[in-house]
Structure formats: structure tokens, C-alpha cells
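Example 4.3 (complexes with small molecules)
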Amino acid sequence: MAVTLRLLFYNVHRALYYANSKHISSNSNVKETNKDVTKDWKVELHNTMKILPDFISEKEEDILVKEVDPYMTQLRYEFSHWDDAIHGYRETEWKKSRWSKDSSQILDKVHKEAFPSEVKRLVLVHILDLAPEGWIKPHVDSVRFCGGIIAGLSLLSDSVMRLAMVGHEKECTECFLLPRRSLYIMTGAARYNYNHEILKSDESYFKEQHVPKGRRISVICRSEPDPQT
Ligand SMILES: O=C(O)CCC(=O)C(=O)O
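Answer. The structure with 2-oxoglutaric acid bound is encoded below.
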């Protein structure tokens, strides 16, 4: 029962998350016609979307997976998200106190790397388990629920994340390889001005190489929303 209620709450939360994402996409001032918006877009994108390969070791990956797997495998993968934004997923959010000492140390490493000390992090860490056949459609995380830093560890599988500038999706788009055990840190332009998506396995290409995506667990830390939003 507790689990059911919690999931209900979480789904409402996610619904809002994506609803507001759409709101950003259609109303954000990034959609302005100013030509300067696309000037040097690639440099700016690469400056604000950082990928750190092998950020954690195989042993650390194993610690995290062994910790979250018993909980995640109790949940069913969802295939019909209300907003069609995400397919084949199960997810939860854990407070720091819920993690073991070993996992907490790994999360501390992420925090230290991605969040300057003055930036407040959301207390809950998001765990997203994407089925081998799952994928995430383009969206911008809602500014109502997330601040300027999104840091995600990729576990169990490589994948490809595509970023496309809102309003300039065709001309300003770039694929990023997210290798297993890497950390991505999305800030600034990448976080606010670009949709991000995780490609489905058969469309998952990086530099013309197919990157088959298996089951992928991401552990995502976010900063608190800006109080002015
Ligand atoms: O799995 C990831 O790394 C990205 C997740 C995501 O896009 C989201 O939860 O909004």
C-alpha cells in the first residue's frame, strides 16, 4: 500500500515535471528569433554538457546496482506514460539517509564534482531504470522542480543522449555518448536551452557507430530550483 501511494505521488510529480517541461519548450525566451542565439552554439553546448568517462569503477557500479536492484525489480516497467514522454521505465527517489555508507561515498564524489559548495542540492536522488527497449523523448527538465545543475551516473549500459536547441532542433543538435560508469553534468545552456533525450536502442548511433542500449539505470542528482521560478 505504501509503495502504491508513493508511486502514485511520484507519477503525479513526474506528470508535473514533464507538463512544465513542455511549457518551457513552448514559452521560453530561447524561442526568440534572434540569430545570435545559434551563434557558436556548439562551443557553448560542449562547455555546458560535460561527460566524465569512467567516473566510477566497476566495483562502485556494482555497489550501486546491488543496492538499488532489489527495490527496482519489485516495480513493473511502465510503457504507457500519460504524456508519452518516457517509455519502458521504473523509477524512485531516495533520500541520502536511505543509501548505504558505500553508496553515499560514491554519491559524495558526484556531489563534489558537479555541485559547487554554495549550490543547494535536491535532497532526493532520482533513480531511473530504463528497460532495454525503453527510451526518453526530448524534454527540458521543469524549472519548477530542478535548478541549474543536473548530474547523472549511467550504470549497466552505454547509451546516447541527444540534445537539440529548443526552437532550432534541426540545425543545433548534437549526440553525446554516455558510456556505462560515466557521469554527465548538464548546466547553463545545455540544461535550459536544449531538449535532451535518450535514444531507443535501434536508433542509438554515435559518430555513425551503433551503440546498443541494454537495461540502463541512471542515478541523477539535481540542484534545487531557483527560488524565483
Ligand atoms: O536517465 C537520464 O540520465 C536522464 C533522465 C531524464 O532525462 C529525466 O529524468 O528527465
